[in-house]
Amino acid sequence: MLFRLAYRCLTEVSPRLNYKAARLWVWKGLGALRAYRKRLLRKELFPPFLFFALTNACNLRCRGCWVAAQGKPDSLPPEAVDQAIRQAAKQGVFFHTLLGGEPFLYPAIWELIETHPECYFQIITNGMFFTHENVAKIKRLGNVSPLLSIDGLEATSDERRGSGSYAAAIEGAKKLQKAKILYGIATVVTGTNLEETLTDEYVQKMIGLGAMYLWYYVYRPVGPDPAPQLCVAPEKMKELRTKLLALRKKMPIILIDTYWTAEGKAVCPAAKGLGFHIGPHGSIEPCPPLSVAKEFLNDNDGDLFKTINGSDFLRNFQRFVEKRFVANSGGEGCVILQHPQELAEFFRNENVQDVSGRDFLGELDASEVKSSHLMDEPMAEDFWLYQLLKKNLFFGMGGYG
């Protein structure tokens, strides 16, 4: 597996892009994690990477999506994003995930990336905007890794994302493959697509399209169409974990999750302060599905460290999560799924601002209690490569070590 993965990296990705990723993503990521751990010792709060939801504009309406643009879309001012990136760099943070909505609908995206050649950007996209011009810019800049959203094979993915979305994403993936660009596939695992997306056939298809990493997310029922029936049941979660461990040992592609430590304990990335979400209103939110905030980018004259480190709300959220799972030796699950009503009450007590464009707290009140990735018996990583990755890299993993 390792030989085949190395061969793929050397032959399917441009050497220049491999070098950029190694230097800006991996090497600087290790530095960001070290800085993060030092801050923890000083009881300072600032994550090793950030999510920027550049805009809530999107050409799709996916089931379970928490992004809801009503009327004119909201977008982050380019100067605010630029200042935040510069502020983050002072804390040793150089990796940022750009999302939306659809980030390629953000007019200033290329200006932003070109302004920061010292950073590495992951762009989460539906894959429908890989024009010749955009692909050429990705290859020329070299500090971008697209992450295409595909949630199963054609019928399954289209059912959630809309007719024709799968074919368009596959076409986009082929363009990236032809240009030898380092990119990945993001797959949301649901109770209905698990049997399809955690198979040799599915992973091999993504490998055949040139994807170098496959990022698995577990479905969260949020947004105007939460579809709780798509949640992964407890017995299916064990099956998911079992299949993921097996696939890691034989597939020449990096398979990422952000839910379990190297020891197999469940974790909440937001409760660890690993990556806060900057919404299109400039709101600093605990994690992408939680569209509430008390702090904004322009607070403290744009001093992002002062704003995040001084946030009682973000610290109280961490304590709220830890308290709900303190007696569980299996780790921390997801409070959105397991404690939605308590979460809504906590947000009300914190006097947060709902920036969802909906009645987000009302949605939590009405949510059904569901199981999450917290399992009775932790299932440790049984392949040394992933033990190493989870203890030393920072994309939702190494911060748990």
Structural commentary:
This protein is of the alpha/beta class. The chain has one domain: Alpha-Beta Barrel (TIM Barrel), CATH 3.20.20. The protein is 41% helix and 12% strand. It contains 16 helices and 12 strands. It has a 10-stranded mixed beta sheet. A two-stranded antiparallel ribbon has the order 10-12. Helix 4 links the parallel strand 2 (95-99) and strand 3.
Structure described in brief:
By secondary structure, this protein is α/β, with parallel strands linked by helices. The protein is built from 16 helices and twelve strands. It has one domain (2-400): TIM Barrel, CATH 3.20.20.70.
The CATH class designation is Alpha Beta
Specify the CATH architecture: Alpha-Beta Barrel
Rg is 20 Å
Mean pLDDT: 93
- Count of DSSP strands: 12
Q: Topology as H/E string?
A: HHEHEHEHEHHEHHEHEEEEEHHHHEHH
Uncertain runs with pLDDT below 50, 5 residues or more? Answer: 395-401
Key attributes of the depicted protein:
disordered C terminus; TIM Barrel; 16 helices; two-stranded antiparallel sheet; 12 strands; 41% helix; 10-stranded mixed beta sheet; 401 residues; alpha/beta
Set out the fold topology.
Blueprint: H1 2-12, H2 15-41, E1 50-53, H3 78-89, E2 95-99, H4 109-115, E3 120-125, H5 132-141, E4 144-149, H6 154-161, H7 165-178, E5 184-189, H8 194-197, H9 200-208, E6 213-218, H10 234-248, E7 254-256, E8 277-278, E9 283-285, E10 292-293, E11 295-296, H11 304-309, H12 312-325, H13 335-338, H14 340-349, E12 353-354, H15 360-365, H16 384-392
Parallel strand pairs: 1-2, 1-8, 2-3, 3-4, 4-5, 5-6, 6-7
Antiparallel strand pairs: 8-9, 9-11, 10-12
